[in-house]
Amino acid sequence: MRQIAILFFSFLILGFSAQAQKATDKIKLTKGQLINMTTEMKSDMKQAKRGEMKTDMTLVSSMKVAEINDKGYVLEATMDKARMKFEGFGMKQEYDSEDEAKQEGMIAQGFKKALGKTEKLTLGFDGKVIKDPTAEAKKKGGMMRMMGGADIASTVEGVFLLLPADLEVGKKWRTTTENEGLKTITEYTYKGMMGNMANLTANQQRKGEVEGGRGGQFTTKVNQLTQMTLMVDANSGLISMKTSKTKDSSSTEMGGETYKNEGVTDMTITCE
After folding, report:
1. For residue 163, which of 4, 5, 103, 151 sits 20 to 30 Å off, Cα-Cα?
2. How many whole angstroms separate alpha carbon 237 and alpha carbon 229?
3. 213 falls in which pLDDT band (50, 70, 90)?
């Protein structure tokens, strides 16, 4: 009798797993849906001639589905809270949007321009942001660039992922993107299902050159390797949790000198 019960239970589990592997072929959101996102980041970087830089940051933001049209979803993205500790260049700074005593200094000024400001964008059914060329220049360096170092499009795209139709444990696939001088290659590996959540691991390589400052005051040659684990809702395409460890071996050219950057950044993003 016990063996029959075990076989019956195993049959239910196997049947459930088989059904759970059917992933959506487009991003599925509902009008009025509110997605709350928390980003936690810790980095320890060493820059030649400038020493060590440590950053500990937590950002709380939200994305609301304001409209659904034939192109996709109109999202309203807002940074709601921010906390950051920075140590480097011979100074220490701390910012907390909920503590008035910690809202002074250069870092605070940057956050004050971003907090509470809502930016609109359209997310296509394929999980890619439909960019508005006339608005791109205004969004560079804004709220979403502070949310993990990416622009608004990259940040939003980073929490959505469509899975292949023929999922089997151990299946691998690659994606390649190019944006603002950076080429990113990501290889995913499917590990299995937990309910409707797909468990993935990924290795990512990012290389390229980006300019910063007004008129291109410095140029950074980016060379990063990242290992990730992800939990993806197979029914909607929303990434509910992503953890990553990035090893950075980049260099920055500024004022006729080259500064090598070496370090590690750990990041956890959760969406609900």
Report:
1. 151
2. 15
3. low
Q: How many residues does the chain have?
A: 272
Judge whether residue 6 has pLDDT over 70.
no
Q: Is the pLDDT of residue 144 over 60?
A: no
- Please state, in angstroms and as integers, the Cα–Cα distance from residue 184 to each residue in 27, 112, 137, 178, 214, following that order: 22, 31, 22, 6, 25
Residue with tokens 């956050």: 111
Distance CA 253, CA 255 (A): 7
Q: What is the C-alpha separation between 261 and 250, in angstroms, rounded?
A: 5
pLDDT at 214: 59
CB 254 within 8 A of CB 233: no
SS3 labels along the chain: CHHHHHHHHHHHHHHHHHHHCCCCCCCCCCCCCEEEEEEEEEEEEEECCCEEEEEEEEEEEEEEEEEECCCEEEEEEEEEEEEEEEEECCEEEEEECCCHHHCCCHHHHHHHHHCCCEEEEEEECCCCEECCHHHHHHHCCCHHHHCCCCCHHHHHHCCECCCCCCCCCCCEEEEEEEECCEEEEEEEEEEEEECCEEEEEEEEEEEEEEEECCCCCEEEEEEEEEEEEEEEECCCCEEEEEEEEEEEEEEEEECCEEEEEEEEEEEEEEEC
Strand partners, 104: none
Query: What pTM was estimated for this model as a whole?
Result: 0.84
Both tokens assigned to 271: 């969406």
- Summarised one tens digit per residue, pLDDT across range 46-104 is 987 778 999 999 999 999 999 999 999 999 999 999 999 999 988 899 999 999 999 98
Domains of the chain with bracketed CATH = 23-271 (2.30.230.10)
